[in-house]
Fold Sugar ABC transporter permease.
Amino acid sequence: MQLKTFARKLIPFAALTPMAVVVLVAYIGTVVWSFRVSLTSSRSLPTDVYVGFAQYSKLFDNERWMLSIENLALYAVLFILASMIIGFLLAVFIDQKVKAEGVLRTVFLYPYAMSFVATGLVWQWLLTPGIGIENAVRQMGFPDFAFDWIIDQDKVMYTIVLATVWQAAGLVMAMMLAGLRGIDEEIWKAARLDGIPTWRVYVSIVIPMMAPTMATVFLLLSTAAIKLFDSVVAMTQGGPGTASEVPAKFIMDHLFGRANIALASAAAIMMLVPVLTLLAPYVYAKSRRRAV
């Protein structure tokens, strides 16, 4: 009997073993290997010639890398704010028990189901001067209308924000809607009886109660921003010039195009730092809630 009980307790651990092996080898193992390579002078192939943190010094002396960090910071702030605000407003709209709610949810969420590459190519066509949006507006009777942000070095990052927010806002809407549907209906009834304005209920009660959902959405959007690659490659190839360069593209270019795996590994390790910085407080907060 004791043997059967022990076997039953062992089954969940046995089922989780393959996933644990994948995590240890495919994730933690590759991170350790990348860090090791970043400490060498490796070019096309890994070597054992250690140079300490010289690659990290080269990395932060590289103007292209510093530009990619600046672009990523600008993109992350605008992308996260816009996605959360638009997603929340869409969720509030659908939460009003509107007609054809299922259809609207599908319409808003559908862009997220599309490939980032496909989305980027469509937006590239829409934003290219002479065709797409510019051409459509000119045909409406505005021959002097110009919309050339995608070829403007100072505005190209805003076009990438526009395209990716369009794609991500639907996912945010779905998560926010789930959070809104978790709010007790009695709160709304009490607010109506007290004559509290709807906007005040959202600001003072609903949004604070949705803090866990907001934190999850923020974490997902932050990691998506850090990984930004597909949309940039599809829309601008990092151009014009290097105006829309981002860290992920810098890494891929040096890993495959410039055969400098040590510098690419150093850049990859540096991009891991903000991800861990975001995950650490989230994991800590979850562990504290479980302990309580």
Summary: The mean pLDDT is 88.
